[in-house]
Amino acid sequence: MNDPLNHDERASLISPESHVEGFRKARDARRTELIEDYVELISDLITDGGEARQTDIARRLGVAQPTVAKMLKRLDDEGLIIKRPYRGIFLTDKGKALADASRERHQIVEAFLIKLGINPETARVDAEGIEHHVSAETLAAFERFLKG
Questions:
Q1: Which end of the chain is more exposed for a tag (fewer CB within 10 A), N or C?
Q2: Does domain 14-147 bear CATH number 3.10.310.30?
């Protein structure tokens, strides 16, 4: 009866409010996931080459330049980047803080997966998705596990 893997029993015990909260959190994470990926990549490009250009972002993400242009407008509207003509894209302080937080979450999740015995390459790829959906409470538990 108390088997945590008994999915039928778990599903029947979840309240409608819990379902709503879970789906709301997942939708919120999906909305911010692309923004976090973009600012983290822009940060990496700036660190590596001194600037981030739209063409570099498109190539790294495997998307078309118009897709990148649309997202850059959104990032600009949200105060996360500054576009400088003929000089590329730069992060605002708000953008840098978001990139740093996203990178830290990624590193914690990746280290946690590796500690569990996951191949480092697989852990890197899996962490890319998990990092956006992990709660602060779960992330703190991962950190405690890594220190223990």
A1: N
A2: no
